[in-house]
Design brief:
Blueprint: E1 4-16, H1 21-30, E2 34-47, E3 52-56, H2 63-71, E4 78-83, H3 92-98, E5 99-102, H4 116-127, H5 131-145, H6 160-172, E6 178-182, H7 190-207, E7 210-214, H8 218-224, E8 227-232, E9 235-241, H9 242-249, E10 252-259, H10 267-270, E11 277-282, E12 285-291, H11 297-307, E13 310-317, H12 320-328, H13 334-338
Parallel strand pairs: 3-7, 3-8, 5-6, 6-7
Antiparallel strand pairs: 1-2, 1-4, 8-9, 10-12, 10-13, 11-12
Helix pairs in contact: 5-6
The structure holds adenosine-5'-diphosphate and magnesium ion (MG).
Length: 340
């Protein structure tokens, strides 16, 4: 049985449309008018236990709505969804024991005025988590997320980064099988992001937790997930391995050698014999680009170092970010490209 299975999943929001002014308000009272917004349109998903899936898409694509349908917060307008064999909306209570979800730091489920430690202990009691297990979970969160530093502080006093970490700790108290994270890293500084990613990797690889992660920040996804699902305008554009996307569409690698005496010798002479690479002078740097499956950065670098007086070196890799941007700009169709 898959952990999550959805078929033809749809969600239509109904929003009142009101003409401006008092006239509009009165008309809305007499004859209310609505517009329908299809936020999720025929989504099919099958996620196995233990998978970590990145759910990516531009603003308004339908990511949060999908997560809310999977967690049972929203009822689908059409299609079916099963989570661990249950209907997550109809069987919300049973479902809630097996899952956890975080929706960013500003929609905290923690008690605002209680010290974090007490909020967590309350969760432990509600879910009847054995003390030893509770301590173990807390220790993991202390080790990697560093929450022990602010367990005694009321949640209202925590910084945004601390609150996200507190939120995640609280989500894990009851040992969920599935963890949904909706944009967990928005507004976090780099160091906290790193901790969060390390933590998620650990949960996934160490504990085999099923993770569904939405993010704008593609490095989050690359760090944690093996599988990528892209959604745009309520529909799924791509569902497959992240590695495959990277291997097929993000092969370009660019090395930038900053040198003491730029312009000499001719760029193509510097890289002669390195294989299929392109080189050009750009300001005080020799820029060499190549397909990383056809040439090796180490070989290119060794040769350039021999021929030039290099003072600095940068490497840019076309990330998944670039691929996703090309897909959303309509310059790359993964489905077309997928066909042999
Ligand atoms: N409660 C709501 N009522 C009406 N429309 C909504 C509501 N929530 C989201 N939407 C609309 O549904 C679409 C998808 O939103 P959402 O799932 O939040 O996308 P994402 O998380 O990918 O940014 C957007 O057009 C958004 O404006
Ligand atoms: Mg969202």
């Amino acid at each position: 049985m898959p952990a999550i299975e959805a078929s033809g999943l749809c969600k239509v929001y109904r929003r009142p449309v009101r003409a401006p002014g008092i006239g509009g308000a009165l008309r809305q009272l007499v004859r209310p008018r609505h517009e329908d917004i299809t936020a999720v349109d025929g989504v099919d998903l099958r996620i196995e236990a233990g998978e970590a899936v990145g759910y990516v898409g531009p603003n308004g694509a339908g990511k949060s709505t999908t997560i809310k349908l999977l967690t049972g917060i929203l009822r689908p307008s059409g299609g079916t969804v099963r989570v661990l064999g249950r209907d997550p909306h109809r069987e919300r209570l049973a479902n809630a024991r097996d899952i956890a979800a975080t929706f960013g730091a500003n929609r905290s489920q923690l008690h605002w005025d209680l010290p974090l430690r007490e909020s967590l202990a309350l969760q432990r009691d509600i879910y009847g988590v054995p003390e030893a297990r509770y301590r173990e979970n807390l220790r993991l969160c202390a080790d990697i997320l560093g929450v022990d530093a602010f367990l005694g502080a009321p949640v209202r006093q925590l910084s945004q980064g601390q609150r996200v970490r507190a939120e995640l700790t609280s989500a894990l108290v009851h040992d969920p099988k599935i963890l949904y994270l909706d944009e967990p890293t928005v507004g976090l500084d780099v160091a906290v992001k790193e901790r969060l990613r390390a933590f998620l990797r650990d949960l996934h690889r160490g504990r085999g937790m099923t993770i569904v992660l939405t993010s704008h920040d593609l490095p989050d996804i690359e760090d944690v997930c093996e599988r990528l699902i892209m959604i745009d305008r309520a529909r799924i554009l791509y569902d497959g391995s992240l590695r495959e996307v990277r291997d097929r569409f993000a092969r370009e690698r660019v090395l930038r050698f900053q040198v003491r005496r730029p312009g000499e010798p001719a760029a193509e002479d510097v890289v002669a014999g390195c294989g299929p690479v392109a080189a050009r002078w750009e300001g005080d740097a020799l820029v060499v680009s190549f397909d990383r499956t056809l040439a090796a950065a180490a070989g290119v670098t060794a040769q350039v170092l021999q021929k030039l007086d290099v003072v600095d070196l940068h490497m840019d890799e076309a990330g998944i970010e670039d691929v996703v941007r090309r897909v959303y700009e309509g310059r790359l169709d993964l489905r077309e490209a997928e066909r042999p």
